[in-house]
Structure formats: C-alpha cells, structure tokens
Amino acid sequence: MTTLPILPASLRARCAGLWRVLPAVVTVLLLCAPGRRDEADITAAVHITTADVASAVLVVICAVALLRDRERPLTRTAVVVLGTPAVAFALATVVSRDPETSLPGFVRYVQIFVLVPAAVLLLLRSRRDFRWVATALIAVAVFQGAVGVHQYVTETGASYAGRYIRAVGTFGALDVMGMATVVAHGVVLALALGLAPPAGSPRWVRPAALGTSALLLVPLAFSFSRGAWIATALACTAVLLLAGLRLALGSLAVLVAAAVVLVGGAGAGSALIGERLTSITEVAETPDRSVTDRYAMWSAAVSMWRDAPVTGVGLKGYPAHRDAHASIGLSSSSDTASAGAKFQREPLLTPHNMYLLVLSEQGLVGLTAVVGSWTAVLVLGVRRLRRGRGALRTGKPADCGLAAAGLLVYQLADFLYADIGGPETVITALMYGLAAWWALGSEARVEGPPVGSVPAPASAAVAVVPGGTGHP
User: Which helix (H) or strand (E) holds 238?
Assistant: First the structure.
C-alpha cells in the first residue's frame, strides 16, 4: 500500500509527540484562570481547583500511554526515589490518630510528590518537551506579573501597610503567595534559558530571556514576600554558579542593576520595599506579628513531633493538635483584605514550614523519606549537569539542567517558610516533575539526539514508496 506524506517528515515528527506534553502545558496555563477562595475553601477537608483536575487528567493520560506502549515505565532508581515517600505517606495515614481525616491528606501528598512528578517524568520524551512546559510557565509568570504590577500601580491588590498595593495576580488575597511563587519560577526558568540558550536558537533568545528574568523581578518585589525573595536569590545564585563563575558574575551584575533601576521607579512604594527587605535581618531581634505567629507555629510543630517522634500525629493532624501545643500568644488567624473584597480572617492551619509540617504529621520516618527523595533528585541532577560541562559545544541541554537545578533549589528554600496549599501547589508538582525528569530520566530522553537531527516518533509508520526505500 502506498502512502504519501501530507506533511514534511520533520514537522510530522515534531507534532506526533505533542499530545504527550500538552496536558502539562494546559495545567500550567490554567493558573491564569481567576480562582479566588474564601474561608470555607481554606477550612474544607478537600478543595479541588481547576489545576487539580487538569493534573488528574495528566496522570490518566500517562497511564493510558503506558498501557498502549507497553514499555518499562521507570528505572529502579526512579522507583525508589519517587516511591519511598508514598510508602511513608501510607504509613502516616494508617497509624494516624484520625485515619479518616488523614486520608484526604494522603491523596494530596501522593498527587503532589509522586503521581504528577512521575507522570511528567514519563510523558516528556525530549528536551523540546521540557522547554514547552518551561515556556508555558514563563508565559504564565509574565501574565501574573503584569496583573500584579497593575494591582500595585492602581492600588487594587491585597492590603499591605494600610494600602491595597500588594501584588497577588489572579490568586486573590487569601493566596498571597500564589503570584510570588509563579513569578519566582518564571525568573529562574528565564535566567536558565538566557544563560544557556538551546543550540541553534536565534540570537535574540539570550537577551530576551535575560530581559524577561529581570523584568519579572518587579512584580516579585511588589509581592512583598520576603521568603520568595530569599528563595529566588538562592535559586538564581545556584543557576549562575552552575553556569560558570565568569558568566555568573557578569549576569548577576546586569540583573542587580536592572532590578535597582526598575524597582527604583516605583516611587514612594520603593520605601516600603526597602523596609520589607530590611526587616529580613530583624526577624530575630524585633519580629513583627506575622513572624511571632510563625515562631509559635514552628514551636507547636516541634512539640507535636516530641509526642509522636516516629510517625507523627497523622496527615492533616496539625490543625487539630495546634492549640494543645502552641503558646497562648499565637493568633488563631491572620487578617486579609483586598480592593473590592470584604475583610476576611485566614485561619493558621499549618506551621508555614514544609519540613516542620512533615515532621509533626509524619515523624522522623516521613521526614527522612521525603527529604531524602528531594535530596537524591538534587544530587543526581547536579551530577548529570556537571558531567556535561561542555554542554553548549556538544549540544547537550544545558538550559534544562540549569532550570531543573534552579527550580529544586528554589523549592527546597521555599519550604523553609511555606508548605503546600492553594492552587499554586500544582505548579510545585510540575516543577518537581521537571527536576525528576532531568535527574532520573534515561540518557536517551535527557541527552537527546545530536544537534540538528529530528527524531521520528516511536509509533511512526513506514511509508512505502514504489521503487524506493521506506521512510519514517
């Protein structure tokens, strides 16, 4: 039977695998949809967002692909690294003091730290797929950042220092960390792309990516999130150092100069940013109310762990045990408000520290499994990146490696002052999946074909031309 190719072979090859990465891209883009929450959503045992539904579809598509292709899904290393936390989550649920309450927590943890990352690892077949997801995240960061800057300029954001100038994007005042998290990821990804543009990319990619990274620092500053600033600084420093010391110093100077000029144009608001920045060094001597409450919640988490050191009090057990372990100085909630929205009180249901949350609810077993998994991904990812020091010369995906390392460093630093919760949590799962793809993926997927070649899709049929040879 004779078949005539309708599209060029290179274009067919590029489009054939697009369905695999499309669910991840759609999940990222859905973060642009307004998703304001109220107090009922925060206190509910289960709160499902549009991004959660999209991530579930992502996992289902991955399962269907595995059944269709009948291939070995994961390497032994990947199974151990991603599977060990799942065992710890199950153990914490079974021995929980309230298993019924812990069950939704088990589903949430498995979704964020096991299923979605594994699905991303399995569906992404090449560095091109990685860049599709990264580009989508940068686009969302630009959109959310633009909304945040508009909120700051027009004073239509969340309340801060008596004015509605805090940039929160489309997430709303009850998810003040949403925009900051997305924009911070965009900063790291754009910086990695600018430092190591893909081989063969146009010349404008480098300045455009570095410029985007610098511009995103503006809405990040307007988020007034001290933790996001610290985590972004650490992640960008790691990316710059991994890219090379000479390149790091030059790029860092440009980014700092751009940030000073851009933020300096904020007018009177720049004084508030300066005060917020200065307060980072004062949290131990003269902490404000939010810092005092955080210290009290951290102390409560440690007290819970002392009562149940091996397996903790159970997933989602922190709120029920908080008052019995916290000092009387702890506020029961924090005040939130935004332009055009009523005043609300946000209950303090977590210690706002992922490590202490895991320690209190899952004990030493859970903390060892979870942190061990994250550390393994980081170590294996950095090792793979260092093996390809000549990445730009050999065509290896240096931008993917830098991005993966930077994202994971950001997340590990971010978890010192934050935990999972809110619609942006799905982004955490996707970014962890990208890091796992780089660290745990097979050499064939990560290293890719030689520069300039276009791999044929695995399921491509051979078109037989009379009198000639077969062509994929």
Answer: helix 226-243
Q: For residue 64, count other CB atoms closer than 10 A to its CB.
A: 10
Q: How far apart are CA 10 and CA 5, in angstroms?
A: 11
- Phi and psi at residue 318, in whole multiples of 5°? -60, -50
| Residue from 69, 67, 66 nearest 118 by CA | 66
Would you give the end-to-end CA distance of the chain in angstroms?
Answer: 15
Q: Are 295 and 283 in contact (CB under 8 A)?
A: no
Residue 180: what are its φ and ψ, rounded to 5°? -60, -40
Strand order in the sheet with 163-166: 163-166, 158-160, 333-338, 341-347
Q: Taking Cα atoms as reference points, which of 120, 23, 32, 55 lies closest to residue 420?
A: 55
Q: In this structure, what token pair is assigned to residue 312?
A: 């903790």
Computed over every residue of the chain, the mean pLDDT equals 80
- Say how far apart CA 231 and CA 247 lie, in whole Å: 21
Ramachandran quadrant class, 471 (left: phi over 0; alpha: psi -120 to 50; beta: rest): beta
Residues 32-36: contacts with CB under 8 Å, at least 24 apart: 32/140, 32/143, 32/144, 32/170, 33/170, 34/170, 34/172, 35/170, 35/171, 35/172, 35/175, 35/423, 36/171, 36/172, 36/174, 36/341
**Max CA separation in the chain (angstroms):** 87
Contact 191, 248 (CB under 8 A): no
For 167, the token pair is: 């940039």
Q: Could you tell me if 15 and 389 are in contact, meaning their C-beta atoms sit under 8 angstroms apart?
A: no
Domain ranges of the chain: 16-33+53-289+337-444
d(CA 289, CA 331): 9
pTM of the model: 0.85
Any idea of the CA torsion for 433, 434, 438, 442, to the nearest 10 degrees? 60
pLDDT, averaged per 10 consecutive residues of the chain (472 residues), comes to 50 64 90 63 63 90 85 84 95 91 93 95 90 94 94 87 85 85 95 87 89 91 89 92 76 68 56 65 60 84 93 91 78 58 68 93 95 95 78 59 94 91 87 94 66 42 36 34
